[in-house]
Structure formats: structure tokens, C-alpha cells
Amino acid sequence: MRAVFASKDGFFNRSVASPVIRSNDVKVTVDATSINPHDIKAMTQLSDNNEVVYGYDVVGHISAIGNAVKHFNVGQRVIYSGTDKRQGSFAEEQVVDEKLIAKVDDHFSDIQLAGIPLVGLTAYELLFEQMNFIASKNANTGKKLLVINGAGGVGSILTQLAHWSGLIVFATASPNHFQGLLRNKVDTVVDYHKALRPQLNTFVDGTAILSNLDDYFDAAVQLTLPHGIIGTTVSSKEGIQFSKLFEKSLTLASEMVFTKANTHFRDETQGQILKFLINLMTLGEIKPVISKVISGGITAKNLSHAANILSTSHAAGKIIILNRPCK
């Protein structure tokens, strides 16, 4: 099969053997995938001789199953994010543990479904598991949430989930993305070029920092109410002063989407969360935000094009790469 490897010098195509299936795995023919900032960041950290197949958004069809698989059959259409410890989705085929996947019907297109897994899981786990808001419609009514980088892939889903759950949502972006934020159910848009506190004129129960933790940590401490939660999907480069949390008894919570799969801790919940998110899509409560669709297959050329877009622009939403004509 063809796979697209990443090296420190970029993407390149290579013909490799079909991946070996384990007893709890399904093998999936990849119909569409997406590129994420994680892929770009990881490429920059590769050593000279290190070559990796990335890709952590999949919609595809099961072509084979392991002998211990209980819940899936050949031919079924599925979505998943997977794990960064095995070959990713920038390939014609991929194997994945059945706990991490969810069945989908033909109600949604490949484009729509490929825009959900990684950002949807990250948004759900950060908001409802790490930050402890309640994952039920209008269950958090009256509480307030500030989202740093509301226009990105995770932010575009997290703000919709927050609104659905009853939170009053504030979100930062540049002014050219304000209309997109409003379409994603943000109550108050905040220009990240300006000081945040005067624009909010209130305090929030939680702050979700989805980019530049070092730049926004102090503002989050100032704006989050005592005993509130600061959640983040990014690490600190400079080192943050945890002592600043103590005066207000704030909690700092982190989210990394691969933790469950890599540690085998509650990994079955990822398939369950994906089913939950698909149900919300069906009900019209959330929708994927797509910024670009690239057809013509999962190739080094197309992934290089997608990476260039992601690296040189503030893309709002996901970049989808189709491996076959759109369904």
C-alpha cells in the first residue's frame, strides 16, 4: 500500500506492506483524513533519520477484523482519531483498536466526518472531563467560559459544546474570524490583539487555553473566579508560576487526546464520545468547521500543500484530504 511518511525535510510517498492486524484491531481503508497542528509541530522535532506516518482523523471502511473483535464487522463505515504510538492515517490503510472507533451511517459526508475525531475528542475531554462541566444540554446554565483561540479546530467545536451545555461563552480570535465565532454559538467575541479584561468586563468560571499558554496564563488567573478551573491543551515553553494559582484556589487541568489510547486508561470511552458527538451533529447541535478540502488522494504533494496552508495562515477550522471521490 502507499503511505506518506514525514521527515524533518517534509513529506514523501513510499510503498509499504499492509499493516499487521492484532486480535483487537480492525483494519480500515482510509477514505478521508485531516492534517492537524500536532503533525506540523511533531515534524519539526524529528531527528535526521526518523521517518513517521502521521494522521489522526479518519473516516473509512473496515476491510478486516482481528479474531477478538466483538463490536464491528467488515464493510462498516467508522471514524476515529487513534493513537500516536502506531502508524497514522496518512496511508491507504490503517489498523486501530476497536475501542477507539465509532460506527457511522451515510447521513454525513466524508468531509464532515473527517473534521470531527481529534478536535471533537479533545474538546469534549477538556470541557467535560478535565474541567468538570456537565455534559448535558443546558446543564451549566449561568456559568461562564473563556476560550483562548476560539477560531481554531478545537475551539470551533469546544465553543459549540459549551453553548449546548448552557455555558455563556467568551472566545478570542482576530476580528476577521468574529463572524465564524458567532456562527459557532459564541456569546461575546474578544479581540486577542487587545487586553482581555476590559473586553470581558466580568469574571468566568473556567478558562480554556488552546494556544500560547505562557502568553495567557496570567490573564486566565486574573479572569477566572476563585475555585475555578484553567484548562489547557498546550504545554508551557517557558515554565509557568504555579504559585499564582493558590491565592484563588484555582485548578490547572491539562488534556492530551492520545492519553487514553497510549495508557489504555478508559480508552473505550473514546469510541463512546465519538458516538455522542455524531448524535449531536444529527440533532444539529454541533457542526464541523471546514476551511479547505483537498481532493486527489492522500499523497505527499497534497499533504505538503495542506501543511503549507496550516503553517502560513490562521486557518479557521479543519483541512480535509480526500482519498477517493467525496461520499
UniProtKB/TrEMBL annotation:
What positions does the domain Enoyl reductase (ER) occupy?
6-321
Q: InterPro entries recorded for this chain?
A: ADH-like_N (IPR013154), ER (IPR020843), GroES-like_sf (IPR011032), Lipid_raft_assoc_Zn_ADH (IPR052585), NAD(P)-bd_dom_sf (IPR036291)
- Any GO MF annotation of the entry: oxidoreductase activity
The record's listing under SUPFAM superfamilies reads: GroES-like (SSF50129), NAD(P)-binding Rossmann-fold domains (SSF51735)
Top-level division of the source organism's lineage: Bacteria
Tell me, what's a Pfam family for it?
A: ADH_N
Which Gene3D superfamilies does the UniProt record give?
Medium-chain alcohol dehydrogenases, catalytic domain, NAD(P)-binding Rossmann-like Domain
Protein name, entry field: Zinc-containing alcohol dehydrogenase (Oxidoreductase)
